[in-house]
C-alpha cells in the first residue's frame, strides 16, 4: 500500500515537473569554443541628393560581421526630408555568435537613432533604427507679385522645403531679409518709399532642426515692381503719431500717407473705428487706422462706404449695374424686409 502511494506521488511530481519545463523559455546554448559578440556598431552615411532623397550607405566595422540585408518600412518615394524612416538591418556572422539582445550602449549607431537589436538565431541579428533623410533643396520655378496686390510677393513651392528666405531690395539696396513658412508674404510695411522693388527668395529648412537635414537652395530673383505713392513718403511712424520730415505732426486733420488716408486728432493721434468729420461718417480700420471703403461688416451689420471718398452712404445704392441695395439712415444694409413697396432679400438685394 505504501509503495503504491509513493508511485502515485512520483507520477504526479513527474507530470508537474514536465509541465513547468514546457512553460519555461528556451535557453540559448553555446558550444564550448563559441565566442559571443559583446558589442556591435552600425554607421549610416547620409547621401545628399540635389532635389531628391537618396538611400544612405549602411556599414559595420565590427570584426566578423557583415550587413546581409536592409529592409525599409516605407518605399523611398514616400520619404520626407527631416522625418524619421524606420529600417531593419540584418547582420550575419559566420564564426561568432550573437547575444539574445543588445541595448543602445552595446549596439552603437551613428547617423541614425537606435530602436532595438535582437538575435533571430545564433548567427543573425536584426537591428532596428530610425533614419532621417537629407536633401539639397531645389529652387523655385517662378517668383513674382500678386495680381491683386503689388506688394504681395508670391512664388512657387519647392519640394521638401519647410521655409523660405526672402531678401527685399529697393533701388538695388537691401531693405529687409525675412524668413517665412509659406510661399507668399505681404511686404507692404517695408515698401514705404517711391522706388523700384524686387526680391530674392530661396528654399530653406525653417527650423534649426530642419536645417540639420536640408541644405538651402539657390536664390531666384523676382521681376521688378514700381511703387509710386500719392501721399507722404518722407515721415516716420512713432507709435500712433506720424512725424513729418519737418518735425511736425498732423492734428485735427486728414493725412494721406503712402496710398492710405488717416485722421489725426488734436494730439496728433491717429483715430480708429467710426469717425464723424463734418456731416459725414467714416470708418477707420480698428487695427491700423486706415480709411476703409466699399462693403464693410461692422458689429454684425453691413455698411457701404463710398469707394471714391470713404463716407458712409444711406438710401438706395447701385454698386453694380442693375443690382440695388437699401441702406438705413444709420448706414446699415436692409435685408429680408419691405422698403416702401419694394422687397429686399436676405442678401440685401432688391427683388423686382
From TrEMBL:
<keyword id="KW-0677">Repeat</keyword>
<feature type="repeat" description="Cell wall-binding">
    <location>
        <begin position="292"/>
        <end position="311"/>
    </location>
</feature>
<feature type="repeat" description="Cell wall-binding">
    <location>
        <begin position="313"/>
        <end position="333"/>
    </location>
</feature>
<protein>
    <submittedName>
        <fullName>Cell wall binding repeat-containing protein</fullName>
    </submittedName>
</protein>
<dbReference type="InterPro" id="IPR018337">
    <property type="entry name" value="Cell_wall/Cho-bd_repeat"/>
</dbReference>
<feature type="repeat" description="Cell wall-binding">
    <location>
        <begin position="251"/>
        <end position="270"/>
    </location>
</feature>
<dbReference type="Pfam" id="PF19127">
    <property type="entry name" value="Choline_bind_3"/>
</dbReference>
